[in-house]
Write a structure and sequence with these properties.
The protein has 144 residues and is an all-alpha fold. It has helices at residues 6-29, 34-62, 69-93, 98-135. The relative contact order is 0.17.
């Protein structure tokens, strides 16, 4: 197992921060009713949670860690449902103009992708560190 590079880890976190901040700033600057604003925020947070759950459950299954069918299925629902909800809402119901809708959807999808990258990097780094400690027991006694 190769350790993820610091540049790739930084790029993932930077992308997540930039796209999430852009999404949130865009929401704050748009003139929409509070209920619509809360909908966009809730769906965004739900989607981030959902994709992280999918990455975790898929990786657990690959590594032979038991994952219940219910958790695996609900993870996919939690990832795909918010994407569908925001897509339908932006196309059919939203009071925003086309540019605003495009900005929200683009930053929404980009932030989700960045969250997947961050989760993968986190898991890869943890696996790498565990492998290093297992292969070199002297590392257990060292403190940073």
């Amino acid at each position: 197992m190769k350790k993820p590079t610091a540049a790739f880890i930084a790029a993932g976190w930077s992308a997540l921060a930039i796209f999430a901040a852009t999404y949130l700033v865009a929401l704050a600057r748009m003139n929409v009713p509070d209920t619509e604003l809360y909908f966009y925020l809730t769906v965004f947070l739900f989607a981030l949670f959902g994709v992280i759950a999918v990455v975790k459950s898929v990786r657990d299954k690959e590594e032979g860690i038991p994952v219940t069918g219910a958790f695996y299925g609900l993870s996919w629902v939690a990832a795909l449902l918010p994407i569908t909800m925001i897509g339908v809402y932006l196309l059919a119901i939203s009071t925003l103009n086309e540019l605003q809708r495009g900005l929200l959807f683009l930053t929404f999808i980009a932030a989700i992708f960045a969250a997947i990258v961050v989760q993968k990097n986190t898991r890869d780094l943890a696996e790498y560190n565990a492998t290093q400690h297992r292969d070199n027991p002297q590392l257990e006694n060292q403190h940073p």
